[in-house]
Each structure stands twice: as structure tokens, then as C-alpha cells.
Design brief:
Helices cover 41% and strands 18% of the residues.
Length: 297
């Protein structure tokens, strides 16, 4: 219960099941039953969760979602400053990870309020572990922009990322996203599409991006997490065509050719002259190609 001695309260970030309710951490039930305030992304889903766990909340329940996050944060910070124990839960997974929560955590930290967590299921880590791709180094990119041009731009920004990448995506945009990834990263880049994790119809589809894009074109349902292999290590030899392709990707994103060549050379661990020569050779070849040929201009 709230502390009336003037001591500040505690903000608790609680992970919730991403599918199977049996995955709920044991502490979650106790925190839900005893918190002074429960801030939930969707109060209806919270009610279903507590029913499944066979418990009841005793504290005040408020909604805390993207639409009211900015407005409700000061109210929750005020409660915390008054000594309340505030529990934050989202629809699935860990709050603030591509879900509401960051603003509240930042505001609590600024006020010197204690922030702790009840660790729970994570779609990011679950998909990463199931992907079959390297897991020693990875990065989380969340949801890509909905607009095609912005989506391509974001993918070009990470075209040379060597760490395994994890993305969230809506099922109705999956085919377009995989096709864009194949265009920017190369159709042979390995990836895994993880669908309905921990649920009845869980599925992990692994393969090159081009094949996954063709598969997704037939329609995919459910919650989606995409894991993509990172770019080739410096030690891996890149042929001239791949060097030219990487320069083109950067140029299309708005970089000048000189800077694009320098960046590709640095990422590949090669002298700039080697990348420059490959670009010049491709440019000369395009000039002598038939009228419908494609290449650097």
C-alpha cells in the first residue's frame, strides 16, 4: 500500500505472457494483487489475464497506452512520489520495449523514484533463440515505417549492420517488408519469420529473404517477429558486384558517391581505391551495355 511517511514509491515493470498464459512469471500474480495502482495498456486484456490467473486486483486500475501516455505520465509520477507502488503492464511482453513505458520510466528516474521489474516472456529473445541465426550480437529495430519509401530508407540505414537484427511487423505488411529487405539486404540473406510464438499455431519459417518474401505473398496471420542475419563480416570476401550494390544502396538513400564509397570500404575493411575501381568498372560496363541494360549512371 502507499507509504504515508513521505518515502517515494516504486515503479514495477512487469512482463506478461506473449501467448501461453502459463508462461506468466510467478511474481506477476502477487504484484497484480497488491499494487496500489495498475497501469495497463488495455484494461480489458488485463481483466482477461487476471481471470486466467485466478486473481483480483485490489488497487486502482488505469489505462496507459500510446494515445494517453504523455498525459497520464504526470499523474502516475505524482502517485509514485506519494509512496504508491505502481505496476505497469502491456498487452504482451515487457513494458517500454516497443510498447508504452519509456516516458514513465524516464520521468520516474528523473525524480529519483525506484524502478524495478518482474522479468517475463519476450518475443524479441524468443524469436532470436528460435531463429537459428547468430545470437552472440544482435540489435532490436522494432516496427519499420508503414510507408514504402520510409521503410526502404530505414532498411538502407542498417544495410551494413553486422549484428543479427530483430524486427516486429504486422501480418498484412509482412510480404512488402520481406520484399524490401530482399531488395536492400540481398535475396540470399538468411532470415526467420516467427509467428504466433508460444501459441497453438506457433510457426518458425526459415530461409533466404527472397524465398520468405514469396511465401509471405500468399498471406500470413498472427503476431510476427522477423529475425535477419547481419551483413557479412569484414573477413568475408565481397566480390565487385556486391561492393557496387552497396554503394548504390547508399547513393539511393541520398549519400554522395564519394562518401558512399568511403563508407562501403570502411565497412568491408577494404582500401577505398578497391571499391572506387569496382564502381568505375561497373559504370564503364553500363555504358557499353545494350540500351535496356542496367548499371551505375
Amino acid at each position: 500500500m502507499a507509504d504515508v511517511t513521505g518515502t517515494t514509491g516504486t515503479l514495477v515493470l512487469a512482463g506478461t505472457p506473449i501467448g501461453d498464459v502459463a508462461d506468466a512469471p510467478p511474481r506477476l500474480a502477487a504484484e497484480l494483487e497488491t499494487a496500489d495502482v495498475v497501469a495497463a495498456e488495455d484494461t480489458r486484456r488485463l481483466r482477461r489475464l487476471t481471470q486466467a490467473l485466478g486473481i483480483h486486483t485490489t488497487g486502482r486500475v488505469v489505462s496507459y497506452f500510446e494515445g494517453n501516455e504523455s498525459a497520464r505520465t504526470p499523474e502516475l509520477v505524482e502517485a509514485l512520489s506519494g509512496g504508491a507502488r505502481v505496476l505497469l503492464v502491456t498487452d504482451a511482453g515487457m513494458p517500454s520495449v516497443s510498447d508504452p513505458g519509456y516516458r514513465l520510466v524516464a520521468a520516474a528516474v528523473e525524480k529519483g523514484i525506484k524502478v524495478t521489474a518482474v522479468p517475463g516472456p519476450s518475443a524479441v529473445l524468443t524469436a532470436l533463440a528460435l531463429s537459428g541465426l547468430p545470437v552472440d550480437r544482435f540489435c532490436f529495430e522494432g516496427f519499420l515505417p508503414r510507408k514504402a519509401g520510409e521503410r526502404l530508407g530505414r532498411l538502407r540505414d542498417v544495410a551494413d549492420e553486422r549484428r543479427t537484427m530483430v524486427f516486429f511487423e504486422a501480418p498484412h505488411r509482412l510480404d512488402d517488408t520481406l520484399a524490401a529487405m530482399a531488395e536492400v539486404f540481398g535475396g540470399d540473406r538468411r532470415a526467420a519469420v516467427c509467428r504466433e510464438l508460444t501459441k497453438t499455431y506457433e510457426e518458425v519459417k526459415r530461409g533466404p529473404l527472397a524465398e520468405l518474401a514469396a511465401w509471405a505473398a500468399e498471406g500470413v496471420r498472427g503476431e510476427i517477429t522477423v529475425v535477419v542475419e547481419g551483413a557479412a563480416d569484414v573477413a568475408e570476401e565481397l566480390d565487385a558486384a556486391e561492393l557496387v550494390r552497396r554503394v548504390q544502396v547508399r547513393e539511393e538513400a541520398g549519400e554522395r558517391r564519394k562518401e558512399a564509397i568511403a563508407a562501403v570500404a570502411a565497412a568491408a575493411g577494404l582500401p577505398k581505391r578497391e571499391v572506387f575501381d569496382a564502381v568505375v568498372a561497373a559504370k564503364n560496363a553500363s555504358r557499353t551495355a545494350p540500351a535496356d541494360g542496367k548499371g551505375l549512371s
